[in-house]
Amino acid sequence: MKIVVIGGNSFIGSKLVTELRRFGHQLVAAPQTSGLNNARSEILAEMFRGTQVVIDAAKAPTLEDQAILDFFQMSGHNLLAAEALAGVRHHITLSAVGIEHMQGSAYFRAKVVQENLVKGQGFLIPYFNLLNCLN
To answer: 94-100: long-range contacts (C-beta < 8 A, 24 or more apart)?
Structure first.
């Protein structure tokens, strides 16, 4: 199975890539760049061609409150649009258990927005929240 890991060179993303390769999957470790939130859907869709699963393990490139929110909104929107164009079958978002209760953190508020964006995309692409599945 072809899997693209956005943020595949990050701490968690690189571990995912290693483990999924061990199971024989074809992996693309897409390095995260600050341009992900500005990328055009058509360009991302080309990268996703033939991909069954996209795992979003991206992290915000800054800790500034508004920039974090802007990043997760735009990158999430761009990824989902590109996945729909490319026919990706599943979207997995890396998040944290109980973040909806930790709204004192701008990062966690932005992750809730990201989760809601994925949930609100009308099930064009079935999604799975990697960490909240433990709840």
So the answer is: 94/7, 94/12, 94/55, 94/56, 94/57, 94/130, 94/131, 95/129, 95/130, 95/131, 95/132, 96/131, 96/132, 97/131, 97/132, 97/134, 97/135, 98/135
Judge whether residue 133 has pLDDT over 50.
no
Domain span at 62: 2-134
Domain count, the chain: 1
Q: Provide the pLDDT confidence category of residue 102 given band limits of 50, 70 and 90.
A: confident
CATH number at 38 reads 3.40.50.720
pLDDT band at 18 (very low <50, low <70, confident <90, very high): very high
